């Protein structure tokens, strides 16, 4: 099991990062927020989970160990694979996931693309006790959030939202609504989560 990776970012895409580790470029699938928080040429650390299939070995990476824990735990539910687990963390941070499961907030869970009402009810039923205790929610020391001091964050957030399934117009509307927060020096990751909350209203 590859539990973590430390290396230099070779490339940061919409929902993936390529890390140079020991002379090897490792492709790691991430949430849009994690991908947006790193930059090519910078060192970073990611908590990772290796998913083994008959025809593939796929790495998923996270800014915190808590995100990784939630990712792995939700996959214990029948019908939930790594892609859906990653989508859940793209829309909700670990604390929000626990809150939704603990309170049975079906509406919050169904905001995630791919989770319907029955799937949300199954998640609550099976995970309420497993993920009921809040864990650490701090960011990994290896990931330095990219600050949104300029308008560069707009395009990154827009690409991430479109990649998650919203239209360009919906993305632009959400970005316009959360834009005032950028003046406070919020990270691109924080801006993305704020936009996702707007779209979930």
UniProtKB/TrEMBL annotation:
This is Holliday junction branch migration complex subunit RuvA. Homotetramer. Forms an RuvA(8)-RuvB(12)-Holliday junction (HJ) complex. HJ DNA is sandwiched between 2 RuvA tetramers; dsDNA enters through RuvA and exits via RuvB. An RuvB hexamer assembles on each DNA strand where it exits the tetramer. Each RuvB hexamer is contacted by two RuvA subunits (via domain III) on 2 adjacent RuvB subunits; this complex drives branch migration. In the full resolvosome a probable DNA-RuvA(4)-RuvB(12)-RuvC(2) complex forms which resolves the HJ. InterPro entries: DNA_helicase_Holl-junc_RuvA_I, Hlx-hairpin-Hlx_DNA-bd_motif, NA-bd_OB-fold, RuvA, RuvA_2-like, RuvA_C, RuvA_C_sf. The gene is ruvA. Belongs to the RuvA family. HAMAP family: DNA_HJ_migration_RuvA. Has three domains with a flexible linker between the domains II and III and assumes an 'L' shape. Domain III is highly mobile and contacts RuvB. The keyword Magnesium does not apply. It comes from the Bacteria. NCBIfam families: ruvA (TIGR00084). Residues 148-201 are annotated as: Domain III. CDD domains: UBA_RuvA_C. It holds the Pfam family RuvA_N. Residues 72-91, 107-126 form the Helix-hairpin-helix DNA-binding motif class domain. It is found in: Cytoplasm. Keywords: Cytoplasm, DNA damage, DNA recombination, DNA repair, DNA-binding. The RuvA-RuvB-RuvC complex processes Holliday junction (HJ) DNA during genetic recombination and DNA repair, while the RuvA-RuvB complex plays an important role in the rescue of blocked DNA replication forks via replication fork reversal (RFR). RuvA specifically binds to HJ cruciform DNA, conferring on it an open structure. The RuvB hexamer acts as an ATP-dependent pump, pulling dsDNA into and through the RuvAB complex. HJ branch migration allows RuvC to scan DNA until it finds its consensus sequence, where it cleaves and resolves the cruciform DNA.
């Amino acid at each position: 099991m590859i539990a973590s990776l430390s290396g230099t970012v070779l490339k940061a895409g919409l929902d993936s990062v390529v890390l140079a580790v020991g002379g090897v470029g490792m492709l790691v699938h991430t949430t849009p927020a994690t991908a947006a928080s790193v930059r090519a040429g910078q060192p970073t650390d990611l908590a990772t989970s290796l998913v083994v299939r008959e025809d593939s070995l796929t790495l998923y990476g996270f800014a915190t160990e808590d995100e990784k824990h939630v990712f792995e735990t939700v996959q214990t539910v029948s019908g939930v694979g790594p892609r859906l687990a990653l989508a859940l963390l793209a829309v909700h941070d670990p604390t929000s996931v626990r809150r939704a499961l603990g309170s049975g907030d079906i509406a919050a869970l169904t905001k995630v693309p791919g989770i319907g009402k029955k799937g949300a009810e199954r998640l609550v039923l099976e995970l309420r006790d497993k993920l009921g205790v809040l864990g650490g929610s701090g960011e990994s020391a290896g990931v330095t959030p990219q600050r949104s001091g300029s308008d560069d964050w707009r395009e990154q957030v827009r690409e991430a939202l479109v990649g998650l399934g919203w239209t360009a117009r919906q993305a632009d509307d959400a970005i316009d609504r959360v834009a005032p927060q950028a003046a406070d020096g919020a990270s691109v990751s924080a801006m993305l989560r704020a936009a996702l909350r707007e779209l979930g209203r």
